[in-house]
């Protein structure tokens, strides 16, 4: 017998309630009975990094959702003799009508991720793991939007520099970023950027900004002024 156990959470990857414990304990018990059971869960941004680093990408494909084709990645790892499939939508950003330029350095794990994306999608993302002030200013000047998804940011200068160059900030609502960037309201014309609170919501903020951009330069001009 083969069973695919579909869950919204599973210990120890992500757990908010009893379902996480069930999705961990039940498949493990069934495997001991000789049943080929596997678990599939979403890839949340809060999954601990040690687990993420062990995930192997086994498939990428598009899923028809209404009139749209949405990217879906499938990753796998084994924990406690139980295979876990993780549905990944990180590349969802690359399905939007945009190009990404990354500049800077940091945690090696994330550097490797972005360098991998750059090699797979050279026309969509440019990864520059360096510190280069001149290049940074060129990016500010050439970009339409500036993504600053900081976990913590006591002050924050990047979003202010972006506004000076005419690049619209998309920021996470924390610290000085939240204090300086007001969400744009297309009905009143108020606001000077786009914001999100949860990391899983940054895709919606980017999609919103790109869709508004298709309506012409009015929203861009109204924000920058």
Strand count, sense and barrel status of the largest sheet are: 5 strands, mixed
Using only C-alpha atoms, the radius of gyration works out to 20 Å
CATH homolog superfamily of the largest domain: Glycogen Phosphorylase B
* Oligomerization category of the chains in this entry: single chain
The count of helical stretches stands at: 8
**Tally of strands:** 10
Summary of the model, kept short:
This protein has 225 residues and is α/β, with parallel strands linked by helices. It contains 8 helices and 10 strands.
Structure description:
The chain is of the alpha/beta class and 225 residues long. It has 2 domains: 2-88, no CATH class; 92-224, 3-Layer(aba) Sandwich (Rossmann fold). The chain is 33% helix and 27% strand. It has a 5-stranded mixed β-sheet, with helices on one face. Strands 8-9-10 form a 3-stranded parallel β-sheet, sandwiched between helices. Strands 6-7 form a two-stranded parallel sheet. The chain is elongated, with a radius of gyration of 20 Å. The model has no long low-confidence stretch (mean pLDDT 85).
Layout of strands and helices, then pairs:
Elements: E1 2-6, H1 18-32, E2 36-42, H2 49-52, E3 56-65, E4 68-79, E5 82-88, E6 100-103, H3 108-120, E7 125-128, H4 133-142, E8 145-148, H5 158-165, E9 168-172, H6 175-180, E10 194-196, H7 202-213, H8 218-224
Parallel strand pairs: 1-2, 2-5, 6-7, 8-9, 9-10
Antiparallel strand pairs: 3-4, 4-5
């Amino acid at each position: 017998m083969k069973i695919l156990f579909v869950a919204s959470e599973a210990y120890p990857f992500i757990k908010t309630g009893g379902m996480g414990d069930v999705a961990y304990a039940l498949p493990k018990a069934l495997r001991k009975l000789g049943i080929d059971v596997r678990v599939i869960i979403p890839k949340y941004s809060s999954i601990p990094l040690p687990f993420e680093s062990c995930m192997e990408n086994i498939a990428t494909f598009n899923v028809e959702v209404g009139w749209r084709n949405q990217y879906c990645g499938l990753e796998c790892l084994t924990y406690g003799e139980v295979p876990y499939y993780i549905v990944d939508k990180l590349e969802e950003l690359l399905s939007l009508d945009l190009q990404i330029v990354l500049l800077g350095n940091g945690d090696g794990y994330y550097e490797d991720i972005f360098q991998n994306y750059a090699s797979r999608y050279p026309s969509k993302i440019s990864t520059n793991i360096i510190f280069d002030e001149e290049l940074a200013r060129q990016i500010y000047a050439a970009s339409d939007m500036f993504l600053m998804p900081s976990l913590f940011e006591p002050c924050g200068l990047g979003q202010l520099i972006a506004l000076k160059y005419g690049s619209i900030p998309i920021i996470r609502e924390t610290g000085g970023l939240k204090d300086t960037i007001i969400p744009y309201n297309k009905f009143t014309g108020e606001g000077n950027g786009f914001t999100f609170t949860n990391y899983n919501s940054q895709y919606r903020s980017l999609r919103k900004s790109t869709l508004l951009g298709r309506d012409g330069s009015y929203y861009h001009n109204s924000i920058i002024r």
